[in-house]
Structures are given as C-alpha cells and as structure tokens.
Design goal:
By secondary structure, the protein is α+β, with helices and mostly antiparallel strands. Helix content is about 15%, strand content about 30%. Helix 3 links the parallel strand 7 and strand 8. The longest helix is centred in the C-terminal third of the chain and has 13 residues.
Length: about 130
C-alpha cells in the first residue's frame, strides 16, 4: 500500500536567485507542450517556432540545439504558459536538472551547464 509519493520540488532545484519576489530571474515562457507535461527542473531551449520546449541534443531535431548561450532555461512550474529560470544571478543544483534522453554524454551536459552559466545561472554540485 502506498501512503504518499513526492515529486521534485522547486527548492531541490533553485538554490539561490536574486529578487524572487519580483521575478527578476524568471519569466513566463510560451511553452510548446505537444510532448506532454514536463517536470520541474527540465532543461529548456527554443524550438523553430520560437516556443520553449524540452531541450534536445540530437542533431536531427527541429530544436535550437543550443542556441543555448542565449536561449536556455530551466522549467520552474506551470503547463501551457510555463515559468522558466532564464537568467541570473541564480544558482541551481546539477542533481535536480531533468535531461532529455538525448543528453547521454558528459560533454553534452557540460555544454548545457556552460550555456546556463553564460546567462548567469550557476550550476552547483548540490543536493
């Protein structure tokens, strides 16, 4: 018998952000959820239609495979109009980032970390 289950919490992901009460590091994103809902902490990128989508690494997709230096984000909440952490100063936990299966190499993940950090979102070895 299952008594309770728990999902990823925002506090597992976001370790620090400037002015959260004003949403300085966040913005509402036009989100393409044609692939269904995604979890808090999912790495996002812009697709060809200019909507945010789960970031994919595979070169055969239509997504902006890391135009991430300017178009990276991490999902914080919402469904159709989601909220994303897209600039810093902010810090997130590496362990809480949710990856698409196409990110199967350390170098790919390191490139995503670098893209987030270029936007002022520090990626920490934290739990």
């Amino acid at each position: 018998m299952i008594i309770a289950t728990d999902t990823q919490r925002l506090s597992n992901l976001v370790k620090y952000e400037v002015a959260p009460e004003m949403g300085y590091c966040r913005k509402a994103l036009a989100f393409d959820n044609t692939n269904g809902g995604v979890a808090i902490g999912t790495l996002l990128g812009l697709n060809a239609a200019g909507k945010w989508e789960v970031a994919l690494q595979a070169p055969t997709t239509a997504y902006s495979q890391f135009a991430l230096a300017t178009d990276a984000g991490v999902k914080l909440g919402g469904v159709a109009a989601t909220v994303g952490l897209f600039r810093g100063p902010a810090s997130v936990s590496k362990a809480a980032i949710v990856w698409h299966a196409s990110f199967d190499q350390a170098a790919e993940k390191n490139a995503a970390y670098a893209a987030l950090e270029a936007q002022g979102v520090q990626v920490l070895d934290a739990v």
